[in-house]
Amino acid sequence: MSDMGEDHAALMDRTYRVQRRFYDLTRAWFLLGRDRLIADLDAPAGARVLEVACGTGRNLAEIGRWFPGVHLHGLDISQEMLKSARARLEGRAELALADAAGFDAQALFGQPGFERVVLSYSLSMIPEWEAALEAALDCVAPGGSLHVVDFGDQADLPGWFRLGLRAWLARFHVSPRADLFDAAERLAARSGTRCDARRLFRGYAWSVTMTRPG
After folding, report:
1. Does residue 176 contact residue 185 with C-beta atoms inside 8 Å?
2. pTM of the predicted protein model
3. Stretch 76-90: mean pLDDT, rounded?
4. Which ranges constitute the DSSP H helices of the chain?
5. Could you report the per-residue pLDDT of 164-186, keeping only the tens digit for each?
6. Closest CA to 99 of 7, 174, 165, 30
7. DSSP string covering 4-67, please?
């Protein structure tokens, strides 16, 4: 893990040592688009699913409920968040401590690739977020896909709302990535993947799906 990664891990552990206990209750109303992302996974039985920056394990639990028979994996940089994920998932997912900006899926999970990879409201909290996006795509198996949802630019929402949201998010070390679409398109061009980018809820959130050819 890089020095920046170690610093970020320490920050996340400090932030979530207490917050992890009520994180999901307080986030449900504003992390919009997560369940749409899960539905769009369309993961067949037996598929390997990885969530990068899995947090409390909420999304992995939902994925397992929507798609019985998939093999769940998750990684997070925060030991504190992984405590909640392990308690929630009770052995139904393989979890690992790792930096989203640079990880070895083979070493962590014994898997060279995954049919579905998820980044849900995580890039906005990762300092080296473009490296995390590339690392996530790198472990997508042929014919598989990477699914991203995160805060958008809120350009079609009232200015007072946008300014208030940004100020509130900054208190939790969250920075919406205004150039997410551009970064995904550049990465798709380099990697030969198909990129589908969509604005959700008048730009409140953005989604990106990157699909590898089979």
Report:
1. no
2. 0.88
3. 92
4. 3-19, 23-27, 34-41, 58-66, 79-89, 105-109, 129-138, 159-170, 180-191
5. 888 888 888 889 999 999 999 99
6. 7
7. HHHHHHHHHHHHHHHHTTTHHHHHTTTSTTHHHHHHHH-PPTT-EEEEES-TTSHHHHHHHHHS
Q: Give the integer Cα–Cα distance in Å for 158 and 32.
A: 17
Of 129, 82, 73, the C-alpha closest to 106 is 73
Encoded amino acid at 207, one letter: S
Reported as type and span, the H/E element at residue 115 is: strand 114-120
In angstroms, the CA 112 to CA 5 distance is 23
C-alpha–C-alpha distance, residues 145 and 154, integer Å = 26
C-beta of residue 16 within 8 angstroms of C-beta of residue 81: yes
